[in-house]
Predict the 3D structure of the following.
Amino acid sequence: MWIAAIAWDSRGYEVVCTHSDGRSLAPWRMGAGETDVLVRRLGELAAETGCEVAAVLDSTNGLLDGPLLAAGVTVLRADPWLLPQRPENASVSAEQLARHAAPALNRLVRLSTEVGTLAGRLDDLRRNIRDSADVERELTLRGLYLVRGAPTAPRVALTFDDGPQPPHTDGVLDVLREFQVPATFFCVGLHADAHPATLERIASEGHHIGNHTWSHPYLPDLTRDELDFQIEATNRAIRRVTGTDPRMLRPPYGSRTPDVLRWIADHGMATVLWDNDPCDWAMPGTAAIVDNAVRQTGWGSVVLMHDGGGDRSQTVRALSDIIRQLTEDGYQFATVDETLEHHAAHLAGTPAC
Ligand code: ZN
């Protein structure tokens, strides 16, 4: 079997392929916009050698499992206790990842589209979220934490994570333009850096842009220096195109600890979550996404959807029906920064307009 160990850094990805019989291929680098090249090369390697290929990612790389799984590639996650310490601005190198993963294959976690990137760590995720409740309350009062807006008006915020990623981001933008609906895009730095023209289109069409980290890591695994890199490098990539720094951050998977929330607040940024997850990331079909989104929407809801990180054609197809049905139910659409303002006014007891 081939192990394709994939590392990320501030420029993109590096791939090292090693075989259980000792063979290895020359490492290669690829940009974050070349996922299709990666999928094709791994497919060719399997076909040419007649051997299975398993991609190995670490827990700080949450952007490739979706497209690889969709292409039928086996994806294994190596957790930090199997790996050496990372630098603050990258995962462990692809060579290190291959070297440490190969003898520990039975301790790697096999991922699936249905369970998601955090398979096997969901209890850890939930425990960290429970432990964060006190800090969440404190930050809410400071206007630096939001799950949903004030339930004072039929207002809903549509949000799209993990892009910008053509052609799906463009598909989402086309629908939003047709219906004249504003939305919020939580962009990952690797994709913002790789697709500046798409990011420019999001901004020029009047949508709001937030930070969704550089490489989509599981945040409780990061040191403060690593989190600072994830925030600042992504802000830089967005600022290069839009001229302004994002003021909001959405943690990948909603993962957080009390420390992570305080560190984000130290950047002057609000942590934004959601109360409505139609599970488009699991690709349950267009009708299910529409039904989930509409059924779970209440006054002030923040809806989590995705324009990147995999094949988002179901999301694009669902979006017109979601907008049409919510409009028929009397909802108006707001960006998350407007929702945060209304929420702050609600908490302060002043009427929101
Ligand atoms: Zn995400």
Remarks:
- The radius of gyration is 20 Å.
- The chain has a mean pLDDT of 95.
- The first strand starts at residue 2 and ends at 8.
